[in-house]
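Next up, sample data.

:::
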Amino acid sequence: MTDTAIDLTTLVLEKGSHACEDGACLMEARALLLGREKSDDRPPGTSPVLHNFGISLNDSFGDEKRQELKRFLPRDGVDPLDGTEGDGQDEARSFLALDWLIRTYTPAFLDLRPELADVAAELRGLRRIVDLAAAQSAGPVVRAARDQSAAAGDAAWAAAGDAAGDAAGDAARDALQPTVDQLQTSAIELYAAMINPAAVTA
């Protein structure tokens, strides 16, 4: 099957594997567009880091947000992920993802607790994690942030009380949604940057 067999304007990406069913996830749709059998197996020429992270994004996003991943599918003879296998950039891709996890993802959740603003700022202020030395240097700050956020969370739930626990949980989920939306958009841009991490300068 070729790319003319799928209309990207009407294609709806779905969660999970659909090898024997209707529907397709990001990587299954990509396989079809490349003229292969529908499968989420990694095709030749594709970085395993990009392949696995793409599957993770597909399955963690909600139905509406997932459709934004169609930008990474082949179209008009151009496949954004082709040629990334063995290009020597998978280590850089992995560090780019780790940097995002530490300096973007984690502080975004810490921002939800005003008393943890300084912790979030300290994580954001770390130098960009581009190698093992930078990752090791960030370790003590990350561990301290983990301990402080855990302690703050325990105190908050204790203060809420058992009777108010369910209501507090619902309110927390509502308050969390804007942060989740923001981070999912950021994760898509991260994925785009991971295709050619050598071009990332900040």
